[in-house]
Amino acid sequence: VQLVESGGGLVQPGGSLRLSCAASGFAFSRSGMSWYRQAPGKERELVASITSAGDTTNYVDSVQGRFTISRDNAKNTVYLQMNSLKPEDTAVYYCKARYFASWGQGTQVTVSS
């Protein structure tokens, strides 16, 4: 299982970013996927998840209405569109496949003026 996150960066409050996670080494189209984040000094938390078909999504309350998880099974890629970013969204963001323990290297998101 290989997961490669990208798309992070420095953005001002209120701005947007789109994260991507390219997956390989497993049956992506049959696996639910999730995005997690870990801020300095805090535990890793689940941010959003999506079913294998992409028909059901779930979000942590703090990002509901601002973030959107989606996937393209033809490209083995899962996305996280992040809008109206806040300083408290600053963290390293990781994707994860359901039932697999592997993590990617993560992508840093920093929200600051």
Describe the structure.
- It is a single chain.
- The radius of gyration is 13 Å and the shape is globular.
- The relative contact order is 0.33.
- The mean pLDDT is 97.
- By secondary structure, it is mainly β.
- Helices cover 0% and strands 49% of the residues.
- It has a 6-stranded mixed beta sheet with strand order 2-10-9-4-5-6, with no helix packed on it. A 4-stranded antiparallel beta sheet has the order 1-3-8-7, with no helix packed on it.
Describe what is shown at a glance.
With about 110 residues, the chain is mostly beta strands. Helix content is about 0%, strand content about 50%.
Descriptors for this entry?
four-stranded antiparallel β-sheet; 113 residues; six-stranded mixed β-sheet; 10 strands
Write the layout of secondary structure elements.
Blueprint: E1 2-6, E2 9-11, E3 17-24, E4 33-38, E5 45-50, E6 57-59, E7 67-72, E8 77-82, E9 91-97, E10 107-111
Parallel strand pairs: 2-10
Antiparallel strand pairs: 1-3, 3-8, 4-5, 4-9, 5-6, 7-8, 9-10
